[in-house]
Amino acid sequence: EVVLTQSPGTLSLSPGERATLSCRASQSVSTLGWYQQRPGQAPRLLIHGVSRRAPGVPDRFRGSGSGTDFTLTISSLEPEDFALYFCQQCDDDSPPYSFGQGTHLEIK
Amino acid sequence: EVKLVESGGGLVQPGGSLRLSCAASGFTFSAFGMNWVRQPPGRGLEWLSFIVGVGYTSHYSDSVRGRFTISRDNAKNSLYLQMSSLRADDTAVYYCARRGNYMSGAFDVWGQGTVVTVSS
Phi then psi for B29, rounded to 5 degrees? Predict the structure, then answer.
């Protein structure tokens, strides 16, 4: 079973700043997704296949990485970006489709 | 509009059972694999189970295997989760989520969730 570890647990930044969120896998994964969850809402898919933005996702969100190390970068934070972020391994042949424990992006 | 709506949550005693439903609309339900994911209060997401679009192939997390059963009725555009031997640590918001066919396996559509509370 792949274990995903996200860091940092909490990231405190100001609007306009750049955010870098990390997701490390316990073994190599072929595909990874990123989700955003605002308070009281269901998760929303941001990135699939490591680096492909889901429909309607602004281009300030960028996914990158390979193997065991992956990154979600938000180039210039907007007020609505302050939320929880989760990574997930989605490899077809490798359930469970486990999630990382999350990064809380909060306003500084 | 593509939509998933969960129902069936509520308060149940430890050791009890509950059946969750997820009604799908706005897409060809049978063409997509479906999942259940839960989120305990104040905590992260936990994937629970997956079922293929047509057929009975399914997968479970270790935490629910043998206690929970996923199923679907494509004629009714509905997904189900039969939960038994419930414990306090099963308390969570339960989401159904679609596995996107062109999204590298990611979950592209989510319901709003239904709350399950296991308590005496």
Answer: -55, -45
